[in-house]
Amino acid sequence: MKRIASFVMLLVLLASALAACGAATPATSTAPSTAAGGTQASVAASVAAATTAASAAASPLAAATTETMATATTDTTATTTAGTDGTAVAGTDGTAVAEENLPDVSALNLSGIRIGYQGPLSGPQAQFGTTGLNGAQLAVEQLGEQMGFQGVEIAQFDDQATETVGASNANTIAADQNIMCVVGHINSGVALAALPTYRDANLVMISPANTNPRVTEEFDGTAYRLVGRDDVQGVVAADFAVNELQAKNAYVLHDQTAYGEGLATVFRDTLEERGVTVAGFAGTQEQSVFDAVLTPIQAANPDVIFFGGIYSTVGPFIQQLRERGIEATVLGGDGLDSPDLTRLAGETAVGTNYVSVSGPASAYPQAAQFSEDYQSQFNAPAGYPAFQAYDAAKACLLAIANAATEANGKPTREQVEAAMEDVDTFQGVTGTVTFDEEGDRSPATYYVFEVVSGDPENWGQNTVAGTVEAEPPAE
């Protein structure tokens, strides 16, 4: 097993300098203060040496580094809607990622090739799904043309963030022999339901958002991901709670999904290793009325409440939490990384912290051009997981192109699957993308954010406390 490397977020001097700028205290009484210039002023968090249990196995955080961030994330609102199985045909001239030596397949007959996309395109999580779809579509249009694909398409499938729907769609995708690769899913539980079908069909899936460790541990060779894992994200969140929020007593919730429960479990276990009292650990599928959940929380009087879930659930929860007068700081994972959190919770969301596997646009070397292209095409700001979906679609295109070159024509899925094993490093919107042997991104970066406004239009102003870069855990 890998040991966790101790490291400290070196922001003490920065905090001292910014204190003179006039820090404003968020509405939540226990949340960190925020400097007027957009940089969090009280940041002395560390991710210390520790071992965390996840998926019934110890998963230590490996050699990690931190750096200060004084930039804000981009808004992730997307207005595009999509059907269940429509197609989007390539054909624009712009490019978000300038890269030389892309494979050229223009001389090969590759007509009819499709890349599948699965995500929630309807329902309460449609914002995540459509943003990811837009990013993948932009990659297919721009890079498909550069690489000489003729008419390559995105085949869209709405999994509704529901496991049974995602699994059913996977059967339809597998039956279409022209679909050579899949970009998806947004929800880990849906991915885990669909992956047995993808594996049996030798169909590579590259996820822009799945963080549950099981995705790559159980389906290596089939599943790849552009983001980090819950067994690291949960450690980062726990250490932020201990070192920055000074938590002594925490209450941990999850939404009973593979994503939410896995993340919450790692958070709880890490807190207990740090000597913090965990007053409660509970799962709920409640979406609107949280009285039964809030009563034991109020009795426990915690410093911090961690909710492993999605913005569509956590937003109403926060609002009702504050209406009860509970002042504990709310902390969550990347499922909260959406302006819809503030659409649902309004000003009560101010002071909420979340760890995200996606950074601000300024963290990515090609994000400026990508954001401009995205805004121009979809009339909405780019955000999570559009950056990652662009890179996921690029990985698909590279694997298909390399397999086609080797086959001197249209490849089989088996050939694409084999070619994907060699697409281990490439330049993407999110920087240099490297996959390890299991398909995990290596290393991955984790960001700690604080919500600073109840206005969804100001989501891009959320401040970054710091970043943690870490290798995926090793068995």
Structure description:
There is one protein chain. The chain is an alpha/beta fold. The chain has two domains: 7-64 and 230-356 and 444-470, Rossmann fold (3-Layer(aba) Sandwich), CATH 3.40.50; 87-227 and 364-434, Response regulator (Rossmann fold, 3-Layer(aba) Sandwich). Helix content is 34%, strand content 19%. It contains 13 helices and 22 strands. It has helices spanning 12-19, 126-146, 163-175, 188-200, 214-217, 230-243, 258-273, 291-300, 311-323, 340-345, 367-378, 386-407, 413-420, and strands at 7-8, 23-24, 34-35, 46-47, 53-54, 57-58, 65-67, 87-89, 114-119, 153-158, 179-183, 204-207, 223-225, 249-254, 277-283, 304-308, 329-332, 353-356, 425-428, 431-434, 444-450, 463-470. It has an eight-stranded mixed sheet with strand order 7-22-21-18-17-16-14-15, sandwiched between helices. The chain has a six-stranded mixed sheet with strand order 8-10-9-11-12-13, with helices on both faces. Strands 1-4 form a two-stranded antiparallel ribbon. Helix 2 packs parallel to helix 12 (386-407) and helix 6 (230-243) crosses helix 7. The relative contact order is 0.18. Mean pLDDT is 83; it is low at 1-94.
